[in-house]
Amino acid sequence: MLGDLQWARARWLIATLCKAGIRHLIFSPGSRSAPLVLAARLDARLRLHAIIDERTAGFAALGIAREKPASVAVLATSGSAPGHWLPAVMEASATARSMLLLSADRPASLHFRGANQTVEQRHLFNDFVDLREDIDLALASPEHVRACIERVIRVLSEPAARPVHLNLRLHKPLEPSEAAYTASLDVLCKHAAQTSLTPGPNSPRLSRVAVANGASQTPCPAKEAGAAHAPRELVEALRSGPRRIVVVGPLGPDPAIANAILRLAHRFRVPIWAHRSSNLTASRRDMLAPSGADWTDAGQSPHVAVTPTIALHHGPEAPGANLEPPSHILTLGSAPVSGGLPPHWLEAEPFIGTISLRQRTDPDARGALHWLTRDLKASLCTVAAAAIDAYTPTQEAWLRAYQDQGPKPTRLAAAASVRRARLTTPLLLQGLGDLLPNGTRVLLGNSLIIREVERYADDSWSKLRLYCQRGLSGIDGLVAGALGHHLAAPEVPLMLMLGDVSFAHDCGALAAIAQARGPILVVVLDNGGGRLFDRLPLGSTRHLVSHLDDFHTPPRLDVCALAQAHRLEAHTPSSLSSWHKVVRTLATARSPHVCVITS
Questions:
Q1: Whole-angstrom Cα distance, residue 385 to residue 230?
Q2: Residue whose C-alpha is closest to residue 461's, from 491, 427, 492, 430
Q3: Would you tell me which of 47, 218, 290, 310 could form a disulfide with 407, CB atoms 3.0–4.6 Å apart?
Q4: What is the 3-state secondary structure (H, E, C) of 193-206?
Q5: What local confidence, expressed as pLDDT, does residue 283 receive?
Q6: What does the pLDDT look like over 425-442, one tens digit per residue?
Q7: CB-based contact 293:259 (threshold 8 Å)
């Protein structure tokens, strides 16, 4: 009876989640979670992905969430298993990516009694989730189960929602009877909705179930400004500030939002400092300025200067070092974007206005304006429409100074001898967009490669869709994150570019990515590990430079051997022409490849 009721509710739960838009379930096999996996196998709307390593599973779910928010759930058994999701959950929280965390758990009667594989799981992710719910799938009342799931679905579907955690307590027997397993979904849903079990007298400490069932966390409602109403403070700051600038962080490749940002910048006569993964630095006029736009061509407008952030700001030669700090900074896109700002700008404590898809909590903002909106494009257009007499002589002078002294992409000479030169990262990046199919997804690793792309990527990159895992700037989970992007859209070519240390952190995910089918190229830049520190102040500080070896930590992995052990084809190009040959194979690749560049 207990196992069959759990089975009925598991089938109902999976069907309800599918109806709400969940289309991918990534699971790591385990006994306690078996009823949910069995139920998911019977629903044709779900694509199931079995990944044995929970940490890899978490980052793969994050990759899917970046492509298709609120469409993925990740499932693990009880004990330490869901704890391996934490790095991915932290990253998803920082970038407001919604995914459903389903953790199977022991019944409350087994907790605090020394039972095997039993640990308090309800608060594993605490402040990194928007909602956590705890349900005993057999003993909770039908009303409570239904109310919890409704809250989960509502919060998960909100714009820019963070992860949602649903902890599910399951009892033995975990397997359904044959009669229950073969019953129709309609019969099972009716059974689940009408049946309520009463705990027996021999169930120890079962009073905890009532406490657990009531321990749901309802998210605090954030103050919201409708898209049709622009806050006066923000409009006034953009209109009258003597030195104003828009800084754009990671955004999805959405031309509509790109156009809205350009419209706002044009109306308020402000330059744009855009992170490469904002997909705003594209030069293709058909994407950024479609016909009928009511502003001049973005590339020619004297009021819009879209330049990439150059993230290495150190010393008097740094881009923007000689510029007077802006008085007003409007930040857009996923946090954080401050990594692209010169330190002396931030130390000047300018007004920072933020239009975000969710309320941000920043105790150090010191009067910053935060605006929560459900429609970023509409809100940006509303602010742009409110611009009245945005011209000021001081802003015009700031614009000219910015265009003269601000950051500029580094151009490489296209000499014939370059083709025979030793492979370097700038050479790898030059013209890459012309070698790949339009719309190829490129996931950039942290930390050196993303800075190199900022500095050296040319106009050909406008044809690519760029992503980064930059919410917390961690270097872990990048291979698994790329797998998630592939699972969300397996037909679209995908390239991952990361360093050797980042690869070492996530080389275990190769076992999962080796099972994929489709165009995937993992490019590992093997430069002896940790070479970012050479570019940081540590690398130029005389009395500390002798300690650089403590930070390089080369992994000393034979990446090719590791790839071949997973039956993945590996390449080691040594010239520009051989690198181009490898890149061109991505368009027709039917399985993942690994490419190692030694420098």
A1: 9
A2: 430
A3: 310
A4: HHCCCCCCCCCCCC
A5: 37
A6: 888 998 999 999 999 999
A7: yes
